[in-house]
Amino acid sequence: MVSRVARAIRRGRAEPPTRTVDPRAVAGAVVDPELPMLTLADLGVLRDVRTGAGGTVVVEITPTYTGCPALGVMRADLLHALHSAGFPDVEVRTVLAPPWSTDWITEAGRRALAAAGIAPPGPAPVRPDGPVPLDLGPTRRTAACPLCGSAETEQTSEFGATACTALRRCRACREPFEHLKEL
Amino acid sequence: MAHEETVYDALDLAHGGEGQWAFGTGFDDPLAGVDTTVPDGVDPADLGAYCLMLGDDALVLAQRLTEWITAAPELEEEVALANIALDLLGQARLLLARAGAAGVLGRSRELAGPTIPDEDALACFRDPDEFRCTALVAAPNGDFGRTMVRLLVATTLRLAVLTRLRASRDPVLAALAAKGAHELTYHRDYAARWVLRLGDGTAESSRRAQAGVDDVWPLLADVFSPTDVERRLAAAGVAVDPSGTRAEVTDVLTTVLRRATLRVPPWPADEAPAGRHGRHGPELVDLLSRLQGLARQHPAATW
Fold first, then answer.
1. Which of A40, A72, A94 represents a domain boundary (last residue)?
2. CA gyration radius for chain A?
3. Interchain CB contact of A133 with B (< 8 Å)
C-alpha cells in the first residue's frame, strides 16, 4: 500500500502530506522501475536519506549492476517523489562501495518477489580475495518454483529480460518463471 | 500530462516532459556525488589514460557483442549477450566518466559541444587512434564459436585485472573493480561453458571452436605487455600491471580448453603494446563508424 500511495503522489494524483513527513519514508517507498513490486528500500539500493545543511535532502543510492539503466529512472523518481512531498532541495548521490549484492534485499522484498511470481535469490556466493575459481559445471543455483513451490526446477537461461534475472522452468507444473539471480 | 503512466514518466518530466526522452539522450552523470579527487602523488593524465584503456576495452567489446542482437542462434543467447554487453557498457560509462573527471578529454570535448556528457564525448567523438583498447576486443566476431572463444579470453583477462584492481588506491577504481569482478565472473563462466559445449560437442562445433581458438590466440601477443602508464600507476598502487595476470590467465584458459578437448596453441611471443598506444587495424575504424555515426551527424539529438 505504501508504494501505491507513493506512486500516486509521484503521478501527481494524490495530495502529498506537507508537514511532519519523513523524507526517508518518501524515498523508501519509491519503487524499482523494472521490479515494481519492490521498493528501493526493499531492494537494498537506498543507502542513506538524510537532511543536510539548509534543509537539503541528500539521498544515496547504489546501482545493482554497473550498467543497469534503471538507475537513471530511480534517480528521477526519487527527485520527483521528494519534490512532490514538499522537499524542494534534493540531491541524489551515487555510492559505489560497498557493491550491492542480492543479500541487501530485505525479507519483505523477498516475499514481495515470490508473491509476484519471481523466485527470490538465495545467499550471494562467497567471494575469495584472490583469483575467482572457474565454475564449469551446470549452474548449481537452485530456486523453488514461485507458483507451485516445487524444488524440481531447471535453468533455461542465465540471463533474462533484466540485468538481475535468470530464466527458469518448473518441472512439476511446467511453468516458466524468473529468478532474481544471486550477485 | 496526457500520456500513459509508465515507469519513465518521472524521467521524461526531468527532461522537459515533451515525451522526447529516449535512452541515449539526457543521461545523468554516472559519477554524480562520487568523490573523484585524484589520489596524492598520481598524475591525473596517467589516471585518465588508464581509465581509457579499461573503459575502451569494455566499450568496444560491448559493441561487438551487440552485433549478435537479431543474429544469435537462440533468443536466450541473444539476451545473454545483450546482458553481458550492458554490464560492460556500464563499466565503460563509469571509466570514461572517471577519465573525463581526471581531465582527459582531448579534442572530444570541442567536437562534442558543451551539452554532451564526458563519457559520451569520449565514446563518440574520439578518432580511432585516440582509442586505447587492445586488438583482442576490436577483432571482428567471426562465427559464434570464435565469439565465445574471444569472450572467454577477454573476460578471463579482465576478471584477473579487476580482482587485483579491487586493492587500488583510487577509491573509484577500487569500487568499480569490486562490482565489475562480480559481473565478470558470470560472463567468464558463461563463455567457458559455451566453449566446453562447442569444443566437446559435434565434429562441426569442435572444428569451429578450434578454428576460433587458432584465430584468437595471436591476439594475446600484447595483452600482458604493460604500457609506461600502467607501470607507473602499478608502482603507485593505483593500477594493475597486466604481466602479473599471465599465470592466472594461461591457467584458466588451458583448463577450459583441455576440458573442451581443444588443442592449446603455443602462446605467442610478447609484443609491445599497440592498441594501448592507439595503433589499430581497420576493424576498429569500421566498428567506430557504426558506434559513432549517429552522434557525430546529429550531436545531442532527441527523438
1. A94
2. 18
3. no
Shortest CA gap A26–chain B (Å):
15
Domains present along chain B, CATH in parentheses: 1-30 (no CATH), 39-297 (1.20.1260.10)
Sequence-separated (6 or more) residues with CB below 8 Å from residue B188: A132, A134, B152, B155, B156, B159, B252
Q: Check if the interface score ipTM surpasses 0.95.
A: no
Identify whether residues A176 and A108 lie together within a single domain: yes
Contacts of B176 in chain A (CB under 8 A): 66, 96
- What cell does A129 get? 580475495
Instruction: Give the torsion through C-alpha atoms of A95, A99, A100, A101, to 10 deg.
Output: -170
3-state secondary structure of B178: helix
Instruction: Give percent helix, percent strand, percent coil of chain A, each to the nearest 5.
Output: 25, 20, 55
- Quick check: A100 contacting B, CB < 8 Å? yes
Same domain, A70 and A118: no
**Helices B203-216 & B171-199 angle (0-180, nearest 10):** 140
Q: Using an 8 Å CB-CB cutoff, list chain B residues near A159.
A: 76, 79-80, 82-84, 190
**pLDDT tens across B59-77, in order?**
999 999 999 999 988 888 9
Question: Which stretches of chain A are assigned E, i.e. beta strand?
Answer: 46-51, 57-61, 90-94, 118-119, 153-157, 165-170, 176-180
Domain encompassing residue A68: 2-94
Within 45-74 of A, beta carbons closer than 8 Å to B belong to 60, 63, 65-69, 71-73
pLDDT digits (tens, 9 = 90+) for A141-169: 789 999 999 999 998 888 888 888 899 99
Does one domain contain both A113 and A145?
Answer: yes
A130–B189 C-beta distance less than 8 A: no
Q: What is the pTM of this model?
A: 0.89
Out of B7, B91, B181, closest to residue A67 by CB: B91
Whether residue A176 lies within 8 A of chain B, CB to CB, comes out as no
Distance from CA of A154 to the nearest CA of B (A): 14
Residue A73 to residue B86, Cβ atoms within 8 A: no
Confidence check: pLDDT of B15 > 70: no
Taking only residues 103 to 142 of chain B, the set having a beta carbon closer than 8 angstroms to any beta carbon of chain A reads none
